[in-house]
Every structure is written in structure tokens, then in C-alpha cells.
Amino acid sequence: MRYIAPKDAADLDATETREWLDSLDYVLQSGGPAKVARLLRELTVHARQNGVKMPFTANTPYINTISADEQALMPGSPDLERRIKSLVRWNAAAMVVRANKAEEGIGGHISTYASAATLYEVGFNHFFRGHGQHGDGDVIFFQGHASPGIYARAYLEGRIDESHLENFRRETKPGGGLSSYPHPWLMPDFWEYPTVSMGLGPLMAIYQARFMRYLEDRGLKPHSDAKVWAFLGDGETDEPEALGAITLPAREKLDNLIFVVNCNLQRLDGPVRGNGQIIQELEAAFRGAGWNVIKVLWGRDWDPLLAKDRDGLLVKRMGEIVDGQYQKYAVESGAYIREHFWGADPRLLEMVKHLSDDQLRKLTLGGHDPIKVFNAYKAAVEHKGAPTVILARTIKGYGLGEAGEGKNITHQQKKMNEEELRAFRTRFGIPISDQEVGHTPFYRPAEDSIEIKYMRERRQTLGGYVPSRKNRSTPLTPVAADVFDEFHKGTDGRKASTTMVFVRLLSKLLRDKELGKLVVPIVPDEARTFGMEALFRQVGIYSHAGQVYEPVDMDTLLYYKEASDGQILEEGINEAGSMSSFIAAGTAYATYGVNTIPFFIFYSMFGFQRIGDLIWAVADARMRGFVLGGTAGRTTLAGEGLQHQDGNSHLLAYPVPNLVSYDPAFAYEIAIIIEDGIRRMYIDQESIFYYLTLMNEQYAMPEMPAGAREGILKGLYRFRASSKPDAKLRAQLFGSGAILPEVIKAQEILESKYDVGADVWSVTSYSELYRDGHACERWNMLHPGDTPRVPYVTKQLGAVPGVLIAASDYVKALPDSIDRWLPRPLTALGTDGFGRSENRASLREFFEVDYRYVIVATLAALARDGNVPASVVEQAIAAHNINPEKSNPAIS
To answer: Is 787 exposed, middle or buried, given 0-12, 13-18 or 19+ CB atoms closer than 10 A?
Structure first.
């Protein structure tokens, strides 16, 4: 064998590589991309069969997905659109700068929109569909930190005026201001969905796209080519919610979903991946999940250079630079870039010898090139069979120059000095004089200017302005009373749990001719736990693909039935995704004009405690519907133990202003609450939602007492009066949920054994009593000359005799929260502390909330007031086998 010198071997290798590449070029020209793809697949299989170990990669080279040869011409007027974009940039920056001049530290963000302006403006001018006359437009989740740019465009469109910009982040100013981020609660005619806190927007967008298909497959809205767009930052993808559900839209083939990731390589403090490449990382994650990935990395200026890159040297160099170094290039001179990027190989230097340092410095990135962005969007909206993610490379703070372009401090940039403002004005050609620029004036062309006319014409063609929100639904008619009547009558001695009652009621609502089709049951893989499996057969589990397999339980009555028109959203072990579906369904009245009524039932401990951030977003989004905490109550859920037993969700519900919370004990309470909730939300159109806790303990359901309706809804009513109203010793006993039967039992023993006349009250909602009490106090404080208002709880209890004892399956803070409006001090029994794996009786003994502790607490309160001797309490403790030295459950 002839010896081949290393240099000869390298030359031979290069020659062979060139021959293979030439052959591939021939196949591409003669057979097209599909033939090339098939050939490469067959070559890969052949190589593997012959023992070649192929390294796995989910990445493509660090170049644009759409080549220059594949680009379509961009319609419209690119020059005019650039002019409009410059005006939006200026007004967005001016708004933040002026706000911080007027009020030090008021905050705001310039750099995010500066980096994303092209991404948004191409969408506004060519792709984002308004709701128009038929309400079937795109749903857009705007990146929260880019809100100044969205406001600035709305100002140019004439939708908001200069006073609004002047009052950015000053919402209580006369005439109103602008919220910091997208907040439908604060701007209900403008923003559709909240997207800050970060990570929630992408998650909500995924389930919104699926819900759009759900409505179409069930015939509740016409099929359309409307899209769901989610704009997010590359740093935002570190939030687990941002990428945690990306497999769902791929397996559901949600080609109505488009993510646009603004890859400016920076997060709040520094680079997203200083020692790596976030774009390649995200590409691998999304491609691995089954998404269509479009990379928009390099602007048109790079096309001629890439066309000359026959040996792939430039592509190789692009792919080996880490993000921290790319960030450095963004702030350095052209000479630095020539030396450190191009200077890695003499052949690369030769490639750019015709370009000056200034020209090298100005080579545009893909996310700032409207033609590149247009073609990416065009490919995304035309793609079928999978969701699309666009990874657009940008520079954070683009256009800010020395004020922060590409620097680590740019996210916090809120101020610009006069020199920086002048440079910014000049760079983008804003017609403001040197004398005016220091005052940072807003600029809007005349009404009849070509810019304003163009903007309005484009939005009219695309179906109207975005973002825009309004109630597009009409009120429902009242639900027939007979749907609820049976629950008012009780169970005639038969035992049932409140969960069973709810499922029965839900089943009846689903069968209702008018309302049934609008009911959306949502379950995170606990339907059998809640006894809901009968609904599988009744209405089916939604799946766009239907059911392409024979379920293992096909021969049973209640088999697992999936259907393309199924009604149940069975989300798997996924409370965050379920809550995102709840948001989509609960806001459909505004988004689609469809009054869907979601009932989201979950393991109560894994609701407010696990996904409280999403619940806050629910409230902000002005959604409507019912959240149901199943297997609730710290002592009612037996056996499961510390992590599962919920004794705090009702307290966590207190801070949510438009959440109406109840802890019902009986069937009729549930029926009254849900009936009234449907009325308030879907007939009276209130922007509220409900939280009900449901238990799995079975007991007989009594008949509804006469006159109880008002008290059930207001939070308190007398369930059973004392049989000894004239007794010398009196007590008022309060119970909620599954602890109410313990209180009833305590009443019976107190009357029969201790001669204490006790009334029993059902407290359905401490939070409603708490809010009413504070509302009265506030009114009285502000109206000192008027007749004082009296809280409902005070009206009910102000004249009743005796000590006050409350027992709850939740923390003592709940009953304690209404103590100030009671005529005497309240003794609260609750379940403060960690749960235990035990049966109900043992748990209630441990947490000191069973009937025995209600008795002892009552006698102790009477003794405290001097009505009975302490010996009576001691005897009761002994008689009921209570260990006074037992450990405190709150700290055990």
C-alpha cells in the first residue's frame, strides 16, 4: 500500500467531500429537496446497518432555516413600514423615559420592545388578524415587557391618546393611565390575557390553541385558520411552565399555534447561556418535541457571504461561537469583529475584505430584518400538521446605542440623557428638533398623513385592531329550577359525599338541552377518584384524533371513551395545564363569544398551593367558571398524609379579589351556590369565578331549611336552633364542610348531658363574611355622618346569647378572620399543622376538631365567662378521653 502523507490525506479527504457535495447538489437540482431527504435517510440507515455509529443531534446548522433562494417578496411598503416602526420605537422609549423623569423609580422597560420591534411590526402589518365582525381573529399573547411598544402603536392608531402615554404606570391619575404589563382586569377593552409573570403566557397559549380546536370539533365555533401567537423571550424559557407542555401541541397537531421567541441572548442580569447557545438548545427541545422550527438568525446582508461559503467555513464559524461572545460582538467595533470573528481563518478574512469595519459592524441580525421575519411568519401560518416555533436572533436594546444596546444593564434601562435621546432620534429619523429632544416629546403624524392612513388600512384589511378585548357573548337564559330541586330535598337518610352530590349535579347540567353543550368538565387525571367515570360514557373525553385504539375496559359499562367531539378535558397529571384550559374556557365569552362554563375539579391541596400564580392570572383575565377542590379537608381525606391533606386552600383564596369561595357541607348548599354562580357569571355577566371544596366523606344530606338561601350565599345561616332556647347556659356553634356533622353531634351532647342550649350555624364562606365586614367598615369610615352599615355576620349574631365556638377542617385563621364583627370573643378550632396518614376519627382527634373538642371548647368558654366551674371542663375532658398533655398539632 502506498503511504499517504498527512497533507495528501487532507487533500484527498477534501476532494472526496467535494465530490459528495457535488453529487448531492445534482440530486437537489434534478430531484428536489424531497428526494435529497429520502436519499439521506436511506444512507443513514445503510451506514447504521454496517456498524457506523451516528452521533445523535436534534440541531441544524446555525443559519436561517429559510434560505435566500426560498424567500418570497414582501408585500406592502417596506420603507413606510420602517418609518412607522421608527415612530413606535421613539414613542415607546419616550413614554418610559418621561414616566421616570416625572416619578423616580416608577419603572418600565425600553430594551425588550427595542429588540422585538420588527417581530411585532411585521405581525401587525401582515399577519395578526383582528376579531372583525365575526369575532374569529387571532389570539395573541404579547411579551409583557414589550408593552410600551404595544401602547405606542395604539397611540399612533388613535386608540389611546397622549394623556394615556403621559400616565404610563400611573393608573390612578385623572383620565386614566396605562398598566405596566398586559392586565385585562385593569384594561378590559384592550388586553386579552396577562403574560407576566413570565412563563405563563406560553403555557396558556398552548392550551388556548387546543381549546380553539375543542370548540371547533364540538361545533361551538366555526372552523377557521385563526392562529394563537405567543411572544416570549429566550430567558423566559428557563421558567418550567414555558416549555413544560410543548409535547401536547405536537401530538395534537396544533398547527394553529405559533411561538415567536425573541432570542436577544440576554436575561435580566446577563447572558441566557453565556457558555452555550440558547437558540440551538431551544431548537433541540422543540424539534425533539415534534415542532416545526424556523430559525431567523441572519439578515439579508449575510446572504451574499453565505452564498460564497462553498466549503462551509462561515457556517462552521457561526456555529462555534458561544452566546456570551456574540453578545460581546454586539457592543464592539467593526475592527474587533473582523479580528475576533472573521480572523479565525484567513479564508474568512478574504471573504469580507471588500467590507469596511463599519459595514461589518452593521451586518443585520435576522430578527431585525423585516423580510426575513415576514418569510418566517408566512411559513409558520402556512405550515400544516404541527405547531411552529420561530427562533429570532436579535440584540437587546437595539437602537439604544450607548444607552444600553446589547449591554448587561439594558433590561433595567429606564432613562436616557439628552445626548442619547438625540442619537436615538437621529438614528431613526424622528422629526424632533434639538431644542425639543431633551423634553422627550411624543410624536404622532397628522391624521391625514401617509403613515396613519397606511396603519389603519392594514388593520382594517386584517380585521381590526389588536390587542382588543370585549364581551362578545350574549347572556344565557336562567337554568331550569328542576335541575336543582332534587338537591333541596335531601337524601332521605341515604349517605352521600359532597363530591357525589356535585357529580350528580354536573351530570344533570350536562344533559340540559340549553346549557349542557356549554359545560366543560376539566380533570387532571383524577376523574375516578372523584367518582366521575360515568361521565366518560355519557359525554366522552375530548381527543382531536378520536379513539384509534380499543380501550382495555371496552367490555365494561363505564369504559374509557375518547372522541373528537368529547366534552371532558382529561389533562393527565397536570394541574398547571388544566388551569390553562380553565382560563381558555372561562374567557371564551370574550375571545370567541361562546359562554362555555368550565368546572375544573382537582385534588384540593394541589390547587392554590401548587398553581397559585395561574389562579392570579385567572382573576386578572376576568374569567368565569367553577374551581372545585376535591378530596378537601385536612381530616376528611383519610390516609393520604402530610402532602395531600388540605387545610389551607380557603385561606390562600382570600387574596384573590374576584374569587367567591365556599366550603359547603350539604347537597342543597352546593346546588344553591352553583345555581347562583351561573346566574351571576353568565346572566348578570359579572367578572368573577368560584371556588368550592368537596369532600369524600359520606353522611346523610338533610332537607334545606326554610329561608336558608340568602344565608348560604352570604356565608352564614342557622342550620338548627337549640331545642332548649330557655336554657341558662347558651352557645352558638359554627361548622363548615365535613366538620359540620361533628358540630351537630356536639350540639346534641351539650344539650342532653350538659344542659347547654346550643344553636348550630353552617358557615358556608368565611371569606364572604370577611369581605362584607371590611366593606362595611370602609364605608362607615368614609361616611361618618351617615347611618353606619352593619356587617351581615353582626346582624345575624349580634343579639344571640351564649359563647361562640367555631370548628373548621381548615386553619384557625378562617374563623378568626370574622372575630372582630362578633358580639363576644370567638373560640376557633382548626387544623393548623402538618397532616398525618390516619383515619378520619384519629385525624380529628389529633387536630382537636371532633365533636368532643367542640364540647370541651364550649364548656371552657362558659367557664371563662364564669358560667360554669372549671371542674365541669375537667370532668368533660376526662369523660371524653382527651389527653390534656398531648402535643400541639400546630407544631407537631
So the answer is: exposed
Is 340 exposed, middle or buried, given 0-12, 13-18 or 19+ CB atoms closer than 10 A?
Answer: middle
In the three-class reduction of DSSP (H, G, I as helix; E, B as strand; rest coil), residue 587 is classed as coil
- Integer Cα distance of 107 and 100 in angstroms: 7
Best CA proximity match to 287, nearest among 203, 387, 375: 387
DSSP calls for 831-866: --S---SS-HHHHHHHHT-SHHHHHHHHHHHHHHTT
CA distance readout (Å), 758 to 463, 750, 849, 876: 65, 7, 17, 17
Structure confidence by residue, pLDDT tens digits, 661-719: 999 999 999 999 999 999 999 999 999 999 999 999 999 999 999 999 999 999 999 99
Check if the beta carbon of residue 257 is closer than 8 Å to that of residue 205: yes
Pair 564, 544: CB distance under 8 Å = yes
CB under 8 A, 24+ apart: contacts of 219-225: 219/565, 220/517, 220/518, 220/592, 220/594, 220/596, 221/136, 221/592, 221/594, 222/136, 224/136, 225/256, 225/381
Q: Please report, for the chain, how many H helices and E strands are present, in that order.
A: 36, 20
0.85 exceeded by the pTM?
yes
Q: What does the block give as the cell for 847? A: 387536630
Provide the sign of the torsion angle of the four alpha carbons 426, 432, 433, 439, taken in this order. Answer: negative
- Spatial CB neighbours of 31, under 8 Å, sequence gap ≥ 6: none
When computed from its CA atoms, the radius of gyration of the chain, rounded to whole angstroms, is: 33
Residue 132's pLDDT is what?
Answer: 82
Q: Give the contacts of 494 (CB within 8 A, at least 6 positions apart).
A: 700, 701
| pLDDT tens-digit readout, 579-597 | 999 999 999 999 999 999 9
Residue-wise pLDDT tens digits, 70-126: 999 999 999 999 999 999 999 999 999 888 888 888 888 888 999 999 999 999 999
Specify which residues 827 forms β-bridges with.
805
